[in-house]
Amino acid sequence: EMLKKAIKIDPRNIEAYLELGYCYRDQREHDKTEKMFRKVIEIDPGNIGAYLELGYYYRIQREYVKAQEMLKKAIEIDPRNIVAYLELGYCHRDQSDHIRAEEMFKKAIAVDPGNAEVYFGLGWRYKNRGDHVRAEEMFKKAIAVDPGDARAYVGLGWRYRNLGDYVRAEDMFK
Q1: How far apart are CA 137 and CA 143, in angstroms?
Q2: Cα separation, 109 vs 131, whole angstroms
Q3: Labelling 110: which of 23, 44, 75, 86 has CA 20 to 30 A away?
Q4: What is the pLDDT of residues 116-169, one digit of tens each?
């Protein structure tokens, strides 16, 4: 109610639209979510946050063409935004376009080599492609960057289990 009041007082209040969009997203009110983030873009076409939110929203809804459009726009606005590359990589991955997914993850690494998620994403890409050695390397890099990233340990545990090294696999899963 307070956010709606803020919008009524100031119909160009971007923060209120963004926050209302987050509320609707969290409540899974899809049409309202999309409407709020679209309104932000209408008011401020350079608002990268709205493009990222819509890109993520459309990817989750499996509306991949729309997701890619939003994420590419986010990259146009800020070519160093790692989230846009990651989401675009996940979008391609979700469509089984592994070559483009890998390309996006590599671009994300070029932008921010200190982000564990990019190594995890690329590791999973290599795993799905059957390139287990490179997958292991990426999972290890993810752990080196962020020792608290549980997903990378699961990926590495998977690798050790497939090698038959159950002791090391168990260590990763603990």
Answers
A1: 10
A2: 19
A3: 44
A4: 989 998 898 888 888 889 999 999 999 999 999 898 899 989 888 988 889 888
